[in-house]
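Page 47, continued from p. 46.
Same chain as before, 87 aa.
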Amino acid sequence: MAWTLPTALFFSAIALVLLVLGVAQRRWPTVARRGFLPLATTRGDRFFISLLTAALIHLGWLAVADLPVLGASALALFAGAVIMAKG
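Result:
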């Protein structure tokens, strides 16, 4: 994989979010809760599920659409926000 600026920004953003989740866990310990997902999840579980969802959205977008991938990124951000808030 080539380390381009978008690749570095992506992995830096993931590292930053993991750092924020770690600080939040220390300050406000998470409790497993049930949302629309069919299992009780913690903050970290929902983040992992949102990353998997983002990967699937991008792969589906590339397989079906001949449009810029920025649309898939916007859709993935929206899906991730919904999963983190209501999942």
